[in-house]
Amino acid sequence: MDLQKEFTSLRNEISELKGLLLHQTSNEKDSEQILTIKECSKLLNLSVPTLYSYTQKNKIPFFKQGRKLMFLKSSIINWIKEGKVKTVSEIQAEADDFLGKKKK
């Protein structure tokens, strides 16, 4: 076993782990970012008037400070995920799970 090769391999793996940790930390900070209505509109690819309509109908999570609307990026991403249409296999798995619990 070549000690130099093992050391180099370990150092590369540590560098990769550091990179992954830094990337994860930056993603967590990014998700807690507060967005203006224009930034949210750009993120969702919706017009500003459409967003105003969604807030008026309480269709989208938002905060209001005085007259200013603000959006928490993580809440917007979760809102998008909640609207996900389930696949046939996901629906089948839920039905099997439900029927399995009902039989017991």
Per-chain topology:
Blueprint: H1 3-31, E1 34-35, H2 37-44, H3 48-56, E2 63-65, E3 68-72, H4 73-82, H5 88-103
Antiparallel strand pairs: 1-3, 2-3
Structure description:
- The protein has a domain at 33-104: Orthogonal Bundle (Arc Repressor Mutant, subunit A).
- 69% of the residues lie in helices and 10% in strands.
- It is built from 5 helices and 3 strands, in the order αβααββαα.
- Strands 1-3-2 form a 3-stranded antiparallel β-sheet.
- The model has no long low-confidence stretch (mean pLDDT 85).
Task: Please tell me what the overall shape is.
Answer: flat
Q: Percent helix among the residues?
A: 55-70%
The neighbouring-strand order within the major sheet is 1-3-2
Which residues sit in consecutive blocks of at least 5 with pLDDT less than 50?
none
Quick recap:
By secondary structure, this protein is mainly alpha-helical.
Write a concise keyword list for the protein shown above.
5 helices; three-stranded antiparallel beta sheet; mainly alpha; single chain; 69% helix; 104 residues
